[in-house]
Amino acid sequence: MSTQSIIDTESKTKSSKVVSTEKEVRKKRQRKKSTAIFLFLLPALLIYAVFILYPIFSTFNYSFYQWNGLQADKTFVGLDNFKTLLSDPTFWLALKNNLYLVGVSVFVQIPLGLVMALVVLSKIRGKRLLNVLYFLPFLMSAVAIGLLWIFMYDPVKGPINQLLNVVGLESVHWLASSDMAIIAVLIVIVWQFAPMYMILFKASMVGIAEELYEAAEIDGANGRQKFFHVTFPALMPTIVSSSILAVVGSLKTFDMFYVMLGGGSGSATEILGTYMYRQSFINFNMGYGSTIASVMFILALISVIIIQYTNSVRKKRGILE
Amino acid sequence: MKKISLFIVLAMLSALILSACSGSKETSKDEASGGSNSGSGDQIELDFWHFDTGARKDIYGAAIKRFEEKNPNVKVNVVQVPNDDYKQRVIIAMSGGEAPDVFASWGGGWLEEFVKSDKVMDLTEQDIEFDKFIEVALNNSKFDDKIYGLPLGISLYTFFYNKEIFEQNGLEVPKTYSELLSHIEVLKKNDIYPLALANQPKWPGAFYLMYLADRIGGEEVFQNAHRRTGGGFDDEVYVEAGKYIQELVELDAFNPGFNGIPYDSGQARQMMYSDQAAMMLQTGAFVNHVREEFPEFEEKLGVFQFPAVEGGKGNPSNISAGVSPTWSVKKDTKHPELAVALLNELTSVETAQDYVNRSGNVVAIKGVEVEDEYVKTFTEWVNEANSIQFPYDQTLPPELGELHKDTTFELFGLGMTPEEAAEAMEKKAKEILK
Q1: B88 to chain A nearest CA, in Å?
Q2: For the ABC transmembrane type-1 domain, which residue ranges apply (chain A) (predicted)?
Q3: CATH number of the structural domain B26-152+325-347
Q4: Is residue B24 very low, low, confident or very high in pLDDT (cuts 50, 70, 90)?
Q5: ipTM score of complex
Q6: Residue A169 per-residue DSSP state
Q7: Check: CATH 3.40.190.10 for B155-321+389-432?
Q8: CATH 3.40.190.10 region(s) of chain B?
Q9: Where are the alpha helices (DSSP H) in B170-219?
């Protein structure tokens, strides 16, 4: 009995030794693999750290200082910049304008992109031409688009006003009054970015299995039902990621407002991006500008977390149902 | 999916921050490849930044060639950046310690900001012949009795008008403001926009406020408000000037939608060229634009000074003008003598002569022969002027200058009353000017 047990234990230890060496080999291999992976990632990581992480942290760092962007010695003011920001009417105005933009991006751009994708994938004539036409705006650079639309909106000779006049309507001073200016720029931004969502939706619509539609057809679903019960649910992930792109994109936008309104035509059309630029580079308040940038970052981050969270809740519920 | 989208988001966010901060990296790279201060004895490199285009750019190029011929071991790296980008890039370069050795500016409050941060070389004791400069222009880059910049050009702000339209409507050059107003009525009846204005960049409209305040109250009003010597930006004169502006707007004296039209894209100039508008208050650069864009218009082109306001205290010979460019040297340049020598070449009589011949601008340097008809007129005005007013936005500290343009823009857009605009200015002035 005892000898038996000794042998047993011996064999056990033997086998365990074998196992452990096997494990070590596997581990070694894995380690080799992961070092290889790490080495391949390293250049990208370095670039990411130097050009993305470092600036983010230094921006946060600057936001605690009163600094004109030039002086060698910055004055540490703690959270003063953030306090000033909270009681700064221009900041709230800019934020409000950004929220407009978020609303328009999510509730106009994305649905429009969806409709465009549906049109392009439908069986109508000339869809190839439409495909190209729809996509063109997205290929142009922001500055070119801005200048193009400045001429479109020209109060005297602009095609838009001339068209209005032909129809018998009064000319609109598109970019001159601050209320209209926001709407005018929003139209351009929708025009510019809707094609991007079209492409996203097109790609994921092509990926929806044909069998689903066939099954729905057999069940007697009509076109609308097919859209709402097959296409739409299948597009949900794309809609979520599109919304993230739209929300973050509209919170951080700068170029179109800068090009078309000259960096905030009066403070009424200021957005966070232009206000940050103006404070940092025109008013020589680099510290305060960094505070605005930091707040933009935080806002974008929060909204992404919210979207992601609600999405995961939705998914869980989907499984439970 | 989740991870990927999160990654995209992170990347996008970072791109935003990057857009705010990457500039310094870019420039530092530029600089590194430019090797500004390689200083290894034989070959010296100087960095020189400016913002001018066209003929002026060529003029500076010629000056640099002369400089390089005189100093064969020196190479000048010229970087030309357009206006607004220029301001931003200089700020970033300066804060990163990678500033150009010699750089252009507009003097005034913008340059003073750099001087206060101890980034600009004091030129007072350098080997420079200060007597050759027109004093008012030199004073624009003089702070605490020290000179930090050398002026080259003076750009006058004045009315340009279409002589043909004036003739056809039996109009003479207006000497008084009420004559101007009656001209506006006549022109409107004939379906011509009396005044062309492209006010999106805000400075074109600011010229009106500046001139009106000067004509109504005299040059002391601004000086007292600026130096805080018993006056303020809420002075009755500023309120009055605001009222005059809004009167013009309500008269429909300007082309429609002026607050949304950028100057650079040229729609307002087009209105002048195509006989749709009769007058335009602009910088002397307008002459340049005409010659480049529509030379046929030059024979119709006339100039007159901002008319006198009846009962106003201002001397009607007073002129508003900007000094541009003003050359400065960065404080920590490794080759101060050479940088100053380059400054001297950029303001030499030869350069000035070239400038006056080709730029359509008055020059801030004496002893130059003027042939250009417009420059001749402008030079006469400058010589006869009782005082020269530099634009507020370049004279005041940047934040206040910016507010001045914003409030004036709002006056034009009827979004603010003259009283509100004046109060807002004075409130900020109290914070900033102490």
Answers
A1: 5
A2: 95-307
A3: 3.40.190.10
A4: very low
A5: 0.80
A6: P
A7: yes
A8: 26-152+325-347, 155-321+389-432
A9: 177-189, 203-217
